[in-house]
Amino acid sequence: MNTAELTPAGELTAEDLGSVHLIGIGGVGMCGLARLLLTRGVPVSGSELREWPALAALRALGGTVHMAHVESNLDGVDTVVYSTAIPHDHVELAEARRRGLRVLHRSEALAAAMTNRQTIAVAGTHGKTTTTSIMTVILQHAGQDPSFVIGGEISEAGSNGHHGTGPHFVAEADESDKSFLIYRPHVAIITNIEGDHLNNWGDLDGLKAGFLDFARLTDADGFVVTCADDDGTQELIAALRAEGRTVYTYGVSESADLRIWDVSSATGGVRYQASLDGQPLGELKLALPGTHMGLNSAAAVLTALKLGIPLTSIAEALRSFPGVRRRFERKGIAAGVRVYDEYAYHPTSVKAALRTLREVAGDGRLLVVFQPYRVYRTRDLQAELAEGLALADEVICMEVFGPGETRQPGEGGVALTAAIDLPAEHKVFVPGWEQVPAEVVERSRPGDVVVTMGAPPISLMGDELLAALAAAPDLPGGPDGSAAVSPGGSAAAADRG
Predict the structure, then answer these.
(1) Hey, which end of the chain has fewer CB within 10 Å, N or C?
(2) Could you confirm whether 165 is annotated as catalytic?
(3) Is there a contact between 267 and 275 (Cβ–Cβ < 8 Å)?
(4) DSSP class per residue in 253-304
(5) How far apart are CA 21 and CA 247, in angstroms?
(6) CA-to-CA distance for 5 and 2, rounded, in angstroms?
């Protein structure tokens, strides 16, 4: 995408958009934008081909969802919003241009909604969604009522978009298509910088330059928050400080402004000691396991403190944080097998998630159902992905989910499966969705943990796995045994202790 063709933040407002139609409204980013606009009173419609879970909530808020992509969906519409995943010749996108309607990329519509708010934009290769969610919950606990758009739903609250009355707007800033370069944040959070989306950036140096450009877009009286431990952010920190810009850092490094130590992760959550500018803050606890989750929370803690949020409100928000759907989300338990869903698809995220799930599995085994996300990433990072997946005891690998991409011979799920360093009997490529539940049942036994991981569609499989496990006659707790625990917060809370 050529970001020079996009409209920078501040040149449009949400009220300028009129009646808005979102192509692919059920997508993780689009449905959050739709919720935000609906709660702001903007008329919203959208089109989809699959009944994603988020669609029911959008209808309840007054949105119109068409379960087909056709020209007539645009009748009465003023603005059409598309994402990078939508091809240029999509029937509705082409019709919108033919009719002369306003056509905006998702980032442009989101920028319009940010007008007249102090934006906290969260970027980085990993941890964006969790950090954005924690930041939002901290502001809510402080009585700020922030507006927000998140690339995942805050568990229990069941929301990933809201128009609030407070001064802040919290949003994920997506580097994958360079669209984060149109935002004008008051605070820019950069969790880390690793090689990804190099099909758009060329190489790691190009990606680092893009993050530096993003950081430079912050308000003159704003600031940048980034991780002192991350190799990828070091040049950025030095360059920004040399320019006289305000940069605050967090991490275990002794050089960090917000320093954390004694980090301890267990199934009940992660806790750590913290200090700011050498002054002790005491112990902070996040009700989610994983040292990487603790680091994500530290980014939000540092930002909140610099915005003047009381430490007591911050600590309370962390203790009560319910988690994010598709981020270590427990779907339920059947036949003694616990089923989770996790969005990780980059090698670093895959490794971090599987190490945490290994802690949760305890004496049980860890089984992964992995749907690779994007052909270029699976090809370019195949060795790293295979290394991460080998942390599991059993791997069921599906075909790559890559809308609009073409797989070449030797690319995709078969090649990735072959590269995983596990005995042949402990890994398998399963090309068809309908074959996966039976494969999971065949490989599972009571006490195991099964996680669906990777591209967005795999998030829909958890309930099918629970049903198949509960119906399996050869597993204790099958059709004459225990039923599945209902999905969502109750199961997750139980597992956290």
Answers:
(1) C
(2) no
(3) no
(4) STT-SEEEEEEEEETTEEEEEEEETTEEEEEEEESS--HHHHHHHHHHHHHH
(5) 38
(6) 6
51 is catalytic: no
Q: Is residue 64 flagged as an active site residue?
A: no
- Active-site residue, from 129, 131, 132, 417: 129
Instruction: Write down the catalytic residue from 128, 331, 351, 427.
Output: 128
Whether pLDDT at 158 is above 80: no
CATH architecture group of domain 3-109? 3-Layer(aba) Sandwich (3.40)
Q: Name residue, tokens 């519409």.
A: 77
Q: Is the pLDDT of residue 474 over 50?
A: yes
Q: d(Cα 215, Cα 460) in Å, to the nearest integer?
A: 36
- The per-residue pLDDT for 159 is 66
Give percent above pLDDT 90 in the chain: 47
Dump pLDDT digits (tens) for 305-364: 999 999 999 999 998 887 666 667 788 899 889 998 887 888 888 888 898 888 888 889
Query: Which is it for the CA torsion 392, 398, 402, 405, positive or negative?
Result: positive
Which residue is listed with tokens 């099918």? 464
User: In this predicted structure, what is the pLDDT of residue 180?
Assistant: 84
Question: Measured between alpha carbons, how far is 113 from 123 in angstroms, rounded to an integer?
Answer: 18
Taking the mean position of all CA atoms in its chain, how far away is CA 279?
A: 32
| Strand pairing class (258-266; 247-251) | parallel
CATH architecture for residues 329-496: Alpha-Beta Complex (3.90)
| The pLDDT value given to residue 92 | 96
Task: Note the pLDDT of residue 349.
Answer: 83
Catalytic residue, from 172, 175, 342, 411: name it. 172
Q: CATH number of 117-320: 3.30.300.30, 3.30.1120.10, 1.10.1040.10, 3.40.1190.10?
A: 3.40.1190.10
Contact 295, 258 (CB under 8 A): no
Domain spans of the chain, in order of start: 3-109, 117-320, 329-496
**Rounded mean pLDDT of 263-282?**
90
| The amino acid at 134 | I
| Model pTM score | 0.69
Distance in angstroms (rounded) separating the CA atoms of residues 468 and 334: 9
